[in-house]
Every structure is written in structure tokens, then in C-alpha cells.
Amino acid sequence: MTVPVPDRVLVQHALTGAWLHTALPVTDLEYGPELSGPGALRGTLSPRLVASHPTLADPGTTAIYVESAGEIQWGGLIWDVRARGNDYTIEAASWSSYLMHRYDLDGEHGGRGPYVFADRCQVIRNIWAYAQSIPDGDLGVVVDSTTSSSKIGTPADVHHSYWYEQKSLGDQVDELVSDQATPEYTCVTSWNADKTAVVKRIKLGWPRLGARRTDIEFSSGVNIVEEPEQVLAGDEYAQVVIGTGAGDGSAKLRQISAVRNGRLRLEAAAAFPEVNGNDVLKARVEWERARRQTLGAVEQVTIRNTPAAPFGAWQVGDDVYTRIHNAWTSYTGWCRVTGWTIRPTAPGGPQAVISLRPSAEFIYGGL
After folding, report:
1. Residue range 75-125, pLDDT digits in tens
2. CATH tag for 8-93 (out of 2.30.300.10, 1.10.540.10, 3.40.30.10, 2.60.40.3140)
């Protein structure tokens, strides 16, 4: 992302690659990526335009792109189209959303599995290779060659993809990236070198995506334009965590991390079935307890384009120092960017709504 205001929106037939429109007049446009998810796009079209060109926003088979300064900033598939009165709204999600509509019809990803001590990154590549090997299923997505030390499957617990489980390929990918110390991904879209074709990429990160940034910040009175909500969630709080690891019944590994801090005792259970050692399990449970004792997280900030954090300066996964001070909230600390939405035509000028989580909630390649 280089500038906040898009030059044009393009739509393309997802299977044939034929361009349907190269300057689609979309209003109320919002778009952005996501950490280990597809991100989203929303906008409104003229009903008169759609009536005269009914294939422009055909859900499930139309790709849509946002271009700015000659570079594609976002790309994905239109999934939802709704007409109401004079409004014709569209919603899209980026490339990983496609796997939510695909299944392993052959089992073991067409013979690429089962998996024992398999790199999760390779399993993700196998899932995409299988999905795109089926007729009319090739979206043209390229998955990074990143490797990791995060493994799945053991000789005693082989990891399978059974055809009869009817679990979507998207759900399978989510399971591979949803735990701590597992790979991360985001969807990236760009032109190729001569700008004759679109590159659709799954960017894999190990041990993480992004980096700790000391050159930018999100701050009240500087670039934060709305007072963010501070979340104090007692349902998530616990100073006692009971964690379980691998094994069954009485042989299941268990560790308890507990502190007394003058508050009513609250307990939480956490399962880490892939953990086979008590030392690793103990560290993981202590981390989970420390995470749950953190109250007052700020989950979202809305910023404007300033030198403190110019649009395009941050990436998915970055840790950014965040300072929020207002009548209700006083928060200072490192927060991780887990996604954002660009609002090019927001009142008062372009805005970015950035989703955040405390950086301490993440474990990268350890424990």
C-alpha cells in the first residue's frame, strides 16, 4: 500500500481471466488484509450499472482488485451481492476464503498425505496444490516456499485428511495456523513484473509475519482520530490455568499455573494436544495464565495518514508502540497489527481502522 486513495477498482472472471471492467465505479469502499485470514472488501455499486452488466459482480466466480499508484493493493473474490432499493452492495474476501468452499474429495489431499512430523507449511502447500489440481479449481494462487520447524503428526498419532470427514480445506488450513508457535499467513496481491497478469500469493511467515517497529507509532493526539474502546472482559480473565497436553485419560499431561492476587479465584482450561513434554507444557500454561491476567486491551484504533505512521508503513504482523490517553483510557504498550481496513472516502479524509492485539499474546516459534 503506497497511498490511501485508490485509482481504480478492477473485476475479472476468476476462472478464465477475462477482464470484466477495469474502472468499476465503487463507492463507500473499504478493504484490507488480515493475519492468518483472508481480509475483506466492501463497497456499493450503481444498480443501473449492474442491471446493464449483470456479470460484473457475479458472486463466487468474480475476482476484484483495488489499484493505487499503479500497484494492486488488495485482491479477492466477490462472495456476497445484495440489492436493496438504490443500494447494491458487494462483499469480497481474499484468496484463502476460496478454500472454505472446497473439500478433500479423494482423501489425504489426493495422495499427498498422511503426515508424520510434517512441516505445517508444506501441508498448507499440499492443500492448495490439491485444490488447484481439480478441473475448474485453479485460482492461480502461489504459496510461499517458506519452511518451519512446526510439525504435525507423529507415528502414534498420524495426521490424516479423510474424505468422509467433510471438513473444508479452509478449516484444515485454519487448524494448521491457529495455535501458538505455528506458521502464519496473509493474502498478498500484486501485478507481475510487466503488469500483464495478477500474482495471487499466500505469504507464509515463520516464526512470524511482521517485525517490531521502532520507526512508527499509533498515538492519541497524533494520528488516532477516534477514541478507541478499551475492553475489560472478566469472562476471559483467570489467574489459574489448567493446561493439558498429549495423552489420553490418566496418562494425559497436565500442568497448573496459579497465582493469588487479591481477586476472586477464576480458573480457565487450555488444551495443547501437540505438546509432548511437561517442561514445554509448563511454559505454555504459564504464558496462557499471564495472558489471561491482562485486562484493558485495546482491540482497534482508527488513524489518519501522518508521518507518525504513514499509510503503507506497517505490515500485517508488525508490533507497533501504541499510546492511548483520554477520559476513560490510559494505555501504553506494544500491540500487534492483525489486520486493517482502509476507508479512502471517510469523512475528513482517508482513514485506516487497524485491528490490534497485545504483542505479549503471541509466541513465535518457541514453547
Report:
1. 999 999 887 777 789 999 999 999 999 999 999 999 999 999 999 999 999
2. 2.30.300.10
